[in-house]
Amino acid sequence: MTKFTLKATATLTVLALVFGTLQAQTEFWSEDFSGGGLPAGWTTGDESGGPAEWTWCDDPNDAVGAGCVQNWANYADQHEDGFFSTTADNGFAVMDSDALGGLAANHIAVLTTDPIDCSGQAEVWVKMESLIGVFELPTLGNAVLNVSTDQVVWEQFDLMDITTAERWSLNPEVTIVDISSAAAGESTVYIQWSWTGNYEYYWLLDDVALYDADPSSIFLAANDLRVNSNFYAVAPNLYWPLSQAEEFGFLADIQNIGVDDQTNVNLNLTITDLTTSTVVYEEDNFYGNIASDSLAENDLFDGDGFLPTAMTVYEGVYTISADATDDDPSNNTQSFQFAMTDTLFAKDNGVTLVTRPADDEWNVGDGWSWAYGTVFHVVDGTDLYARYVDFAIDGSAVGGQTLLIKLYKWVDLNGDGNLDGDPDERIALGIIPYTITGSEMGTNFISLPITDLSGNPVPLEDDTDYVMAIEYQTDIEGTTVEIGMSNAVDYSAQIFRSEELGAPRYASVLGIGANLDSEPYSSTGFGGDFVPAISMSVGDPLTTSVSDLLDAGNTLEVFPNPATDYVNLQMDFVEPMEDVTVQLFDATGKLLQVQQFENVKSQQATFETLNLHSGAYMLHVTTETGQRTERFVVQK
């Protein structure tokens, strides 16, 4: 995955359990990092000889504490904008790997306690709460706990199993480890957190405690099955033309985070038509018995999947069940929605962040060129043409420069089924130059007709993957365009499932390099949980020209989105418009409401949505100088 510049329920990782009746547990030592710095007597350093060290932070949002995460504002939205340990408000320890950038050798950042007296303890269990983000190296074998009585010989314990595909632990990740083999009965015990990595994200550590017996029953319910929030398959598109529908199947990782084993475990999937409130598809994946502290992952449902057949909004729900009544039903389900449309392909519901690759993704001396594209699969291209592309950029740093918006056809020349192939596998069909004005805000969409360089419409083909990409080619080092992205839907599990079946349905591609024409585009990109906010409409040959589109300097903002009882459209025009018409359409193209205005420069239009079904809608604005369409969702 590639870094760019910029999960709420707690989980419990128990690496050793005592089965049967648990004895009473007593906490005999603790540290909540409330002293305004790392605890007295604790030490930190980098055993690789590098600059890494652990620091202390109180409030990362306001950078209270010299050791707070440097790029918190860029990454915090990936873990719900905070750290949710029990006592995070009074401070915690930090190892900020991201701040170090790429290193010549992996850092080995260690944080070591002063000596702890465990001489009176027949057992020693450590409990901690943390948040970690990895990028290059997984946590197993790298983010570990070491225990020693002399700081010479150390016994190592794994803490978490977070892969680079998963990226983040849950928040907080509560971990319990039996360290009796190294600490029980010892009068001098050192505990050390050690992180081997290179340009990872960061590790936050808080609320460490030692117990004289297994404390799992304090933190764990007896019966607690969970559908994991970080890996479940969704539809391959958020907005999907009904004419291009195909069967898609299902997958969700499940986990037993309770103390007790679970029997007759079943994962159920239902698809409901939200317009009619009718269940239109149902499938089960039966697991049988799932032991305590067990993860069942990458287990595909056996069926061929669901084929959408109606112009509507669908909701999919995964539900886990077992013989025992679950003590925490709040994590028994995960859900997703998608809308079948007349013409629109999209994997986003608007911009959630505006960003670009991190600085060191480019070689020194190279221009900061990059490309980001969304992948759409056309099933039936009969009499079908690409029509419009919608995208969002922040061009404030590169006004006057040119973007190329390209529609590529992917041709698998080497037969490997891999979109990461040779650049020759990308055939440019549509090429639309766009001159950056410098006033683009990053969250407002720009609509352009899709044509070849001669202005001709672009026909589509059957059973073909298309990449709708934004390319910024430059010789300038140090400045670049930023692109509107979305992390509202995670496509990782759906991509994995489709790859396993030999028919990959990718979400996005990313290319970074001095010469984009020779740069392989990676389908891994920023990860499956990030896509560019680039959509494509398809249909009859396009007759609308660029001059028919509302100039990008005129801003339209839809809020709230999702809407419940009403939706507002704030219109701010560069010059007064004599006649403005705003039309509200549903996903099928049916006209629902119309409002008209005269002599408008700044105007808010409000539409009642109280009686509308949950689903996707569009507001189409027409003026004497151009037109534009904004999307929103009604959610009840």
β content, as a range? 35-45%
The gross shape turns out to be globular
Distance between the termini: 36 Å
Query: Any guess at the CATH architecture of the largest domain?
Result: Sandwich
Percent range for helical residues?
under 10%
- Tell me the structural class: mainly beta
* CATH class group of the largest domain: Mainly Beta
Number of discrete domains: 4
**Strand tally, please?**
39
Alpha-carbon Rg, integer: 27 Å
On the 0-100 scale, what is the average pLDDT?
Answer: 90
How would you portray this structure in words?
By secondary structure, the protein is mainly beta. The protein has four domains: 11-219, Jelly Rolls (Sandwich), CATH 2.60.120.200; 225-342, Sandwich (Immunoglobulin-like); 347-549; 551-636, Immunoglobulin-like (Sandwich), CATH 2.60.40.2550. Helices cover 3% and strands 42% of the residues. It contains four helices and 39 strands. The chain is globular, with a radius of gyration of 27 Å. The two termini are 36 Å apart. The model is unreliable at 3-22 (pLDDT under 50).
Q: Which features characterize this protein?
A:
4 helices, mainly beta, Jelly Rolls, 636 residues, Immunoglobulin-like, 5-stranded antiparallel beta sheet, 7-stranded mixed beta sheet, globular
